Amino acid sequence: MTKNKEKQLKSIVSGVKDVLREPILKVLVMNSLLTETQLETLLVDLVIEDSYGDHISYKEKASLRSRIGTGSKGVSRGAFNRTLKQARQNMMKCLYTMLLLAYLGFFDFAVFRPFEEIAAKIGNYREIRDVLAGKTNLTSEEIESYRAAERTILDALQHLASPLVLKSDLSRRRPENET
């Protein structure tokens, strides 16, 4: 591997590590079917190779993944592959769950509107993040705008974590002593 390619790969890995530290991503992972290790493994497998533009062996991918909690880098190829298999299975279960809900017409119910709204806010946030990432010096207004968008999303995610969020309006108004 040339020095330029190695530098490019290190830069991509660094970007993935930065994304894994974002507060919004941490909340999303905490409430998802994926563990942080599984997500990092998926990112290494899919994003790094795609961004790099060349095939990377599983041995090298395993060396790029961090050992969560240890601060050291690299895991065995077998551990990487096991985690990748678990991540793919969890992701497929999630996608099939979404397809099942669509099949049943559940996305037409009002209880899913807040999820649609937060998804749109996250899309806007990512666009802002990408624009700001291309700048070398950020103004205080740009930083505050970015932080405000982040706080808005984190607050909305906290609201979505309520067990009542997937209840209909009628169910929420039902008296508590009724079974």
Describe this structure in words.
This protein is mainly alpha-helical and 179 residues long. The protein folds into two domains: 104 residues, no CATH class; 71 residues. It is 69% helix and 0% strand. It has eight helices and no strands.
Describe the structure using short key phrases.
179 residues; mainly alpha; 8 helices; globular
What's the short story on this structure?
This protein has 179 residues and is mainly α.
Q: What order do the helices and strands come in, and which of them pair?
A:
Blueprint: H1 3-20, H2 23-30, H3 36-52, H4 58-64, H5 77-103, H6 113-133, H7 140-160, H8 169-173
Helix pairs in contact: 1-3, 2-7, 3-5, 4-5, 6-7
Report the order of strands and helices.
HHHHHHHH
Mean pLDDT: 87
Strand content: under 5%
Count helical runs.
8
Overall geometric form: globular
Oligomeric state as shown: single chain
Rg value: 20 Å
Helix coverage percent: 55-70%
Structural class: mainly alpha
Count of distinct strands: 0
Low-confidence stretches: none
Write down the domain tally: 2
Largest sheet: none
Q: How far from one another are the termini? A: 66 Å
